[in-house]
Amino acid sequence: MTGVRLDQPWLAAPATRAVMTALEAAGGPDCARFVGGCVRNALIGAPVADIDIATTLRPEQTEAAVRAAGLKAVPTGIAHGTVTAVASGQPFEITTLRRDVSTDGRNATVAFTDDWAEDAARRDFRLNALYADAQGEVFDPTGHGVDDARSSRVVFVGDPATRIREDYLRILRFFRFHAWYGRGEPDAAGLAACRDLAGGMTRLSAERVSSELMKLLAAPDPRPALAAMAGAGVLAQVLPEATLTPPFEAGAAQFEDAVVRLMLLLPPDEAVVRGAAARLRLPNAVRDRLAFAAVALPAVDLSMSEREARAVLYRHGAPAVADALRRRWAEAPDRDDDARRLLALTASWTRPKLPVGGRDLARLGGPPGPETGRLLKAFEDAWIADDFPSEGHEARLRTLVSRPRG
């Protein structure tokens, strides 16, 4: 024990107590400890979202103990020792202590153990290799995790290169955890290992890479970590299209949205952003958001009148225009008033429906076939240019129908 004790509401919550009591009934008072992020965040006063538990019980014993207590047990990762207990609707991920038997830089073959030090030795960073018992007493097998957490240091457990070769995703995790929990310069030994082994990230799945990247971009201030990534050649390996431009620096400080920050890292080119999104296998919604903003950008200017802005909004849609406005604002951070005015309009304006259709043209003697589409397009262009008037539609159509083609 470290002499450090957690004082957290979730420790005494009925759901937490129910799960710990179930495990202790099967394996004794020291068979289960809270582990990782919940302990780390409790130490530093950060919010605790997920409560993970490590146990000396084997997975089948864990599952049986949870069910015996009348709780729901879900074998979410049984091959790797993980069972999820659900108490009062709250999930608790419970994993048997493990040691690595073999790794290939992407996946590990594990063996179960009852040695807490062995389990700690296979974890990524010392501030994540922290445990706490049911009473909140903290255990720090590496001897440095508590100090690292309190001092905002992200340091690998043991030799950084060894930890990275076990799973090359730890390179990205190093920068992501530094963005969230680090302060000052990244650990020199860890940074050097990330630089030397960056090429190994080609073994990783695109989904794992993009997940880490988006979590990093969601940090309160991702800029120092991204600068370190760029200096180590890691950013170019993951996202070669990215550049740390002044608009990114300004926008990342102003906008918390990870997708906006990603947009500012990338050039405003639809083909480029679609290519990057495809390579990273980003969700379709993210891919389209990036692409639509790039398409809208040439039409967006902070000097637009509200009438001009409504025309752009009609043609490109509010989400794309809002993102394009954020880029323009990042490019000209002193244009606060203009940017806020246009973003407010974007949020409040409702796109009107085209007030006429093919039946209206036919009723007025409009020619069928492709000519109908041409006339409706001409009507729509004039209607937009006149700022979406609500009257005079039939007169406009009559004029178009009677006008000689061309």
Major sheet size, sense and barrel closure: 7 strands, mixed
Q: Strand order, main sheet: write it out.
A: 3-4-5-2-1-8-9
Mean pLDDT figure: 94
Helix content: 40-55%
Q: Estimate the global geometry from the Cα principal axes.
A: elongated
Q: Cα-atom Rg, whole angstroms?
A: 28 Å
**Pairing-aware structural class of the strands and helices?**
alpha+beta
Query: Count of helical segments?
Result: 22
Give your account of this protein's structure.
The chain has 406 residues and is of the alpha+beta class. Helix content is 53%, strand content 10%. It has a seven-stranded mixed β-sheet with strand order 3-4-5-2-1-8-9. The chain has a two-stranded antiparallel ribbon with strand order 6-7. The longest helix has 16 residues, at 370-385. The termini are far apart.
Task: Please summarize what this structure is.
This protein has 406 residues and is of the alpha+beta class. Helices cover 53% and strands 10% of the residues.
Give descriptors for this structure:
two-stranded antiparallel sheet, elongated, alpha+beta, seven-stranded mixed sheet, 406 residues, 10% strand, 22 helices, 53% helix
List the helices and strands and how they pair.
Layout: H1 9-12, H2 14-27, E1 32-35, H3 37-44, E2 52-55, H4 59-68, E3 72-77, E4 82-87, E5 90-96, E6 98-103, E7 108-112, H5 116-121, E8 131-132, E9 138-139, H6 145-151, H7 160-166, H8 169-181, H9 188-197, H10 206-217, H11 223-231, H12 234-238, H13 246-254, H14 258-265, H15 270-280, H16 284-296, H17 306-316, H18 318-331, H19 336-348, H20 358-363, H21 370-385, H22 393-402
Helix pairs in contact: 2-4, 3-6, 7-9, 8-10, 8-11, 10-14, 13-14, 13-18, 14-16, 15-16, 16-18, 17-18, 18-19, 21-22
